[in-house]
Structure formats: structure tokens, C-alpha cells
Design goal:
Blueprint: E1 7-11, E2 14-16, E3 21-25, E4 30-33, H1 35-43, E5 47-51, H2 52-63, E6 73-78, E7 82-88, E8 91-93, H3 125-128, H4 130-140, H5 158-166, H6 170-194, E9 198-202, H7 209-223, H8 226-230, E10 233-236, H9 242-255
Parallel strand pairs: 1-5, 6-9, 9-10
Antiparallel strand pairs: 2-3, 3-4, 6-7, 7-8
Helix pairs in contact: 2-9, 4-6, 5-6, 6-7
Length: about 260
């Protein structure tokens, strides 16, 4: 038996880690939510809160056994939303307001973009997230009578699209490929700004595997300075959903190392 010394949480949204406040999580409709205070009151334990993409990056960095202590790393998580966790010289980079890596709410469709939950039109999240892929497949299914997805359009889900993708279904190929191209172009911006050579992908989207990843790589390469693209490695992370859990826990201990010596 080991004592529970604290709670580490990775949550979607813009987070004030120092105060444990979720400043804005558009997919959860949270605004200035004092999450740490709420849980500290309930469980009588110290609580640390950070963005889930940042937590995933820490988890992959610390626990995948692939990185040296002073490496640079970007981990991009694509699920319901999209975000990037950035580590520079082995330390988490959150930016001045904690929002470094919020690439999901950068506008990538200038004309006729879809309304995003953040209030802007054409954000990356609206065209490249797991949710966006499913929504687009539903909208396009009537154009693809030869698609397996057209047989039961009411059952279109990410799982169904994954199955169709693996059988080279035309509708699945279109929606997944288009999303991957948008994502790759956005990664080109990270490559140009940060010039970090190691990028790992995480989240629901990695189920599409190496063929999907190759499309992302090509789109990134085509939109980047050739030499920078050549030196950039994009791989799929090793820890799946565990990366966020492990990273949030590790960050909690890093923020308060004395918890390791707490006696019951």
C-alpha cells in the first residue's frame, strides 16, 4: 500500500497552471473554472492542473525512454480538439499566458470556414480533429454510394471510418487525407517557428497509422523550408492515452517535489 500524495490533472483548454484555473475550455464550456480548488476541497490533497496536450508531452518525454534530459520535443494531440505540448531543453514551455501550443484554434480556412466553438471560423480543429473527420464523412456520404459507410450512414463514427480506411474506402480516404493535409501544413508552422526536430503524434487520430502519418509528413514537408523539413522527424507516440495521465502525475511531483517525502 502506498499513500496518495496529490492529484495531477490534464484538461483540455487554456489553463492557468499556477492557480489551477481552467481559463477557457471551449469544448467543455468552461470559463475561469477553479478546478484545482474544487478538487482540493473535495479530496484534501494538493492538486496540479495543466493542459492535456502539455501533460501528454511530459508523459511521452519522461516515460517513453526515447529522449535525453535536455532534448527538445513537440507532442501534438489530435482527438476531440487539437493541441501541442512543447518541451525545450527538457522543460515544458507554456508561453507567457500558458497557451503555447494552442494550434487547434489557429485559423487555417480563410474563406467559408466552419464556425468553431471558440467563436472564430475556419480553425484547425474544424477541419483536422477526430470530430471534424466524422462530421465531414456524414456530410459527404450521399456523394459516395460506393462507400461502405453509405450502407449505414446513421452509424458513421471514428471507429467505422477507421475500418473503412483500412479497406481503402473512397470516402474514408478522402476525409482522413484532407484532415491530414491540414494538420501537416499546421505542423510546418511549428517547424518554421521552433525548428524542433522531434515531433510526436498522439490522440484518437493516430489509429489511422503509418499511411496517415506519411500524408502528414508530406504536407509538412511541402509547406516547410526544405532543409528544416528534412531534419524533422514525425512519429507516433508510444503511450497512447496513458501519456496524459503519466505526464500530469509527473508534473505534479515536479512542481512539488517534497510530496515524495510525505509521511502518512
Amino acid at each position: 500500500w502506498k499513500p496518495l500524495v496529490g492529484i495531477g490533472i490534464g484538461t483540455p483548454g487554456l489553463v492557468n497552471t499556477r492557480e489551477g484555473i481552467v481559463v477557457n475550455a471551449v469544448n467543455l464550456d468552461w470559463q475561469d473554472f477553479h478546478l484545482a480548488k474544487l478538487l482540493e476541497t473535495r479530496y484534501a490533497l494538493p492538486v496540479t492542473v495543466l493542459n492535456d496536450s502539455q501533460a501528454t508531452a511530459i508523459g511521452e518525454f519522461v516515460y517513453s525512454e526515447k529522449h535525453q534530459s535536455e532534448d527538445n520535443l513537440i507532442v501534438v494531440t489530435v482527438s476531440h480538439g487539437i493541441g501541442a505540448g512543447i518541451l525545450i531543453n527538457g522543460s515544458l514551455f507554456q508561453g507567457d499566458g500558458g497557451g503555447a501550443g494552442e494550434i487547434g484554434h489557429v485559423v487555417v480556412v480563410e474563406e467559408n470556414g466552419e464556425l468553431c466553438r471558440c467563436g472564430k471560423y475556419g480553425c484547425l480543429q474544424t477541419v483536422a480533429s477526430a470530430r471534424a473527420i466524422v462530421k465531414r464523412a456524414v456530410n459527404l456520404v450521399s456523394e459516395y454510394n460506393n462507400s461502405d459507410l453509405a450502407k449505414y450512414p446513421e452509424n458513421i463514427s471514428l471507429d467505422a471510418i477507421e475500418t473503412a480506411w483500412k479497406s481503402n474506402d473512397p470516402l474514408a480516404r478522402r476525409v482522413v487525407t484532407d484532415a491530414a493535409v491540414f494538420l501537416g501544413k499546421s505542423l510546418a508552422n511549428l517547424v518554421g517557428v521552433l525548428n524542433i526536430n522531434k515531433i510526436e503524434m498522439s490522440g484518437d487520430i493516430v489509429r489511422f497509422g503509418e499511411p496517415w502519418l506519411e500524408i502528414v509528413r508530406d504536407a509538412m514537408s511541402n509547406a516547410s523550408l526544405t532543409r528544416l523539413a528534412k531534419d524533422t522527424q514525425i512519429e507516433i507516440g508510444q503511450l497512447e492515452f496513458r501519456g496524459c495521465i503519466l505526464g500530469a502525475s509527473a508534473f505534479m511531483l515536479l512542481e512539488n517535489y517534497s510530496l515524495l517525502f510525505t509521511k502518512d
